[in-house]
Write a structure and sequence with these properties.
692 residues, single chain, 12 strands, six-stranded mixed β-sheet
Length: 692
């Protein structure tokens, strides 16, 4: 095989590429012969440039008379070989020449840019021709010097030239091909494809295996996607990139579904390796186009932090005739992409499909998997992860282990805090009517799976969960009831941090709510909205843009509450401030009244820690005389314990300590009291007042 490069053994696999790289090396060799004649290049490059015209005739005479130069000129004059076979191989140098109808000068430019990538020895030869030891990368100025018709190079001065538009050349300055001194480079991935078109997929690209499940494929959209994959124009009829959004729930196999659509049109799909730096994405896209493949990109790869969090920008090389599937878990993430084709929406797994995947992931588990399939609305990848984790146990997992492993994927960020329930169901001290309502909420959540999927209510109610309102004065047990319900149902309880959710900037509250509900919808949880009136308040008359957006946020809340599949508990001290539309959508409304004497007695007894001697405390008197809520009673007992505990002293609670704590609590509540109210313990209060 004829040597076409400087380094022995460098040939490349494409015949036409070999010819044009040979054209470059022969011309470079001939140029070096001229430069190494009796007079060396000038030290001043300006003088060297001025000498080009001065020695033009002498140079031509040298090329005709010198034996080596004449031999190299004969090689340059030889015509190209028959490369029709290589031109049929998609992505080869010959295919690109034919596909883009490249003129000889354009082929030469591409070959010049390819040479230093293919041949490590070419750099110093290029530096010699440029009369600068530090410049080992060719430029357009060098191309013009080597090419027989310098004017031909000027015709390539188009900022949208196809060599640039298709990403075949990279690393140029903003001037594009009009910058004479800009380095000419072919990106390494592209160079490898041009020279070895029949090679394997580079490590920077990974093949995507199409999704097997047919339920994820919208057969009505197959023709539309197939047309995009085979079209030569973008969404508005202009040649260029076709962007196809792929939307689905968190964890949905978006890449596999995109590949399934492409497969219907006979096109393979690749995605960039996780190891590929973002600034190298352009050459990966060009390589995929050369190979005739579609590309899947997660929208996170297109995020532009300088524009704003979660805002994507269009992929590089918009003029490249390539179909790019852009995967996202919410439509808002696609802002900034520009024109796209209609989105492919990936339906979440149905309950039956989830159950099938759970059985596959946990083959030794029993009927409890039906509850897992309802509680955890994970996609295939999430279910498989749980299965792999539990497989390391080496035995059939217990129910609590399955629940713990499944909940590990829940992530609310800073929008909610996980609350460890402190109270059991038996510790609730409520009137009979309210106690019965709490029991109904627990029964409803317990039976939700059976009613939805055995009785058939899932379709009509969109697999919806439950929402309950707890209203009443502070300290009446709303938070305690929420914790006891979560404990009884063995569900994680998340308290919503309204300071993180509600944002003064327009649209930010809705964005936070979307993130919150999207995370909560993947599994059964209890969401506890304390002081819910701050978030679920009445809609206002629209007087400015802030009012309009606030009403939109409430409307969005209404819609997401209806679709929420877990248990949402709204607690408020001001029920009258809640929007009526919310109240209509609540399944339960529990009014927490101030406890009566009997409830207060039980609260007093339950608030005193076990093991503490409280025989001196007259709880019957306290329950009868002081109409305060349970939260305040527990605060009083805690304060009395703090004041009674001393190093080495017995764990004993006295009536005097409790009475002093009662007085402090009533003062804090700004409740007027009299000594008569304390009955036989008035003297203790009087002594306390004199010491203030």
């Amino acid at each position: 095989m004829r040597t076409v490069a400087f380094l022995p053994g460098v040939h490349g696999g494409d015949v036409l590429a070999q010819y044009w790289i040979g054209q470059v090396t022969w011309r470079l060799r001939r140029e070096v012969c001229w430069l190494w004649r009796a007079m060396p290049p000038a030290a001043d490059r300006a003088v060297d440039a001025l000498d080009l015209m001065r020695y033009e005739a002498e140079k031509r005479a040298f090329f005709a008379s010198d034996v080596t130069a004449r031999h190299l000129s004969d090689l340059v004059a030889a015509g190209p070989p028959d490369a029709s076979a290589d031109a049929d191989i998609r992505g080869s140098f010959g295919w690109v020449v034919r596909e883009l109808e490249l003129q000889p000068v354009e082929r030469f430019i591409l070959a010049v840019a390819l040479l230093p990538i293919a041949d490590s020895a070419a750099g110093q030869v290029i530096a010699t021709c440029l009369n600068d030891a530090s410049r080992t990368v060719p430029t357009l100025a060098l191309v013009q010097r080597l090419w027989d018709e310098p004017d031909d190079v000027l015709r390539c001065f188009d900022p949208a030239h196809q060599l640039l538009r298709y990403g075949l050349l990279a690393g140029l300055t903003s001037g594009g091909l009009s910058d004479w001194q800009a380095p000419l480079r072919v990106p390494p991935l592209v160079a490898s494809q041009l020279l070895f078109a029949d090679g394997k997929l580079p490590a920077a690209l990974e093949a995507v295996v199409p999704a097997a499940q047919s339920s994820a494929i919208d057969h009505a959209a197959i023709a539309r996607v197939a047309a995009a994959l085979t079209a030569d124009a973008g969404p508005h009829g202009q040649p260029g990139m076709r962007l196809v959004p792929v939307l689905g729930a968190t964890g949905a196999p978006l890449a596999k579904v995109a590949a399934a659509y492409a497969e219907q049109a006979g096109v393979g799909t690749v995605k960039p390796s996780i190891a590929l730096p973002r600034d190298q994405l352009a050459q990966a896209l060009t390589t995929a186009w050369l190979r005739g493949q579609a590309v899947y990109l997660p929208v996170t790869m297109l995020a532009n932090p300088s524009v704003g969090e979660g805002i994507a920008e269009a992929p590089p090389l918009p003029g490249l005739p390539l179909t790019v599937f852009v995967g996202a878990y919410e439509g808002a993430a696609l802002r900034g992409l520009g024109p796209t084709l209609p989105a492919i929406v990936v339906a979440p797994l149905t309950y039956a499909e989830r159950l099938t995947h759970w059985h596959r992931a946990l083959p030794t588990a029993g009927p409890e998997l039906s509850e897992l399939a309802r509680r955890f609305r994970y996609e295939e990848a999430g279910i498989a992860r749980v299965g792999r984790e539990l497989a390391t146990l080496g035995r059939p997992p217990r129910v609590d282990e399955m629940l713990a492993a499944a909940r590990a994927d829940l992530d609310f960020g800073t929008l909610a805090q996980l609350v460890t329930p402190r109270f059991k169901r038996r510790e609730l001290m409520l009137p009979a009517a309210q106690d019965a309502q709490i029991a109904e909420i627990i029964a409803a959540m317990t039976n939700l799976t059976r009613v939805h999927y055995e009785w058939g209510t899932a379709h009509a109610w969109n697999e919806g969960g439950l929402a309950a309102l707890f209203s009443g004065p502070p300290g009446t047990g709303k938070t305690m009831a929420a914790e006891s319900i979560a404990s009884e149902l063995a569900l994680p309880l998340y308290r919503i941090d309204l300071s993180q959710v509600v944002n003064k900037y327009i649209g930010e509250t809705e964005k936070n709510l979307r993130r919150l509900f999207d995370a909560a919808d993947s599994a059964d949880v209890v969401l506890f909205f304390d002081e819910a009136d701050a978030l679920f308040g009445k809609r206002t008359e629209v007087t400015d843009a802030h009012d309009r957006y606030a009403n939109l946020e409430i409307s969005y809340l209404l819609e997401r509450m209806e679709r929420f599949k877990g248990l949402a508990i709204l607690a408020t001290n001001r029920k009258k401030d809640l929007d009526d539309a919310f109240l209509r959508r609540l399944r339960f409304a529990v009014e927490f009244p101030m406890p009566g004497a009997d409830e207060r007695l039980r609260i007093w007894r339950g608030a005193i820690p076990e093991g503490v001697d409280a025989t001196d405390v007259d709880v019957e008197f306290l329950a009868q005389r002081f109409a305060i809520a349970g939260g305040h009673i527990r605060g009083i007992v805690f304060q009395a314990c703090l004041q009674s505990a001393s190093m080495g002293a017995p764990q004993r609670l006295t009536m005097a300590a409790v009475v002093r704590a009662v007085q402090r609590e009533l003062d804090k509540l700004e409740r007027a009291t009299s000594l008569e109210q304390f009955g036989p313990y008035a003297a203790l209060v009087a002594a306390q007042r004199t010491t203030r």
